[in-house]
């Protein structure tokens, strides 16, 4: 289940972001992913198992990174690192594969501080009977985390827009995107979020608009 942080409460322009592949062979990248999963509240123990899936192109995790052109970049990074001081050290863009294919590592290598992550993975088996498979051009937005320090900034919405562009480009060439979203009528929501010490994200028209776009054929 993912929550789409799609509404900016500050009235500021939508953040400018790019997505950089998670390097599952890098100890620094792996450690940062564990740290962010701990901050998210679940699946920190799953990171080790994600490494092989990243290499084969069945997970395709990417870091959410502010563009250099983002006007409030330094302020937002400071807000993030003050909330998560263990994430102050930048990572290096070092992934040599993405989407199950080799990737040219940029030179010079870019240093960055990720403020979240998102995946474009294989559709869960429960939905494959609908014909939603990677072989048919379908990808599942199955892992989405945005720094809690930046909730309400529009970062989630911009990330969803950006991931659609990445998904429909080489090497994935997605035709269909699908995802899970929070059910606002789930009677177990209160218990689940209370156990994590979190506030239930508000449901909004924007959330369901993003869901519709994600499930639409991109051709």
UniProtKB/TrEMBL annotation:
Protein name: N-acetyltransferase domain-containing protein
Entry's Gene Ontology molecular function annotations: acyltransferase activity, transferring groups other than amino-acyl groups
Matching Pfam families: Acetyltransf_1
Domain (N-acetyltransferase) ranges: 110-187
Record InterPro entries: Acyl_CoA_acyltransferase, GNAT_dom
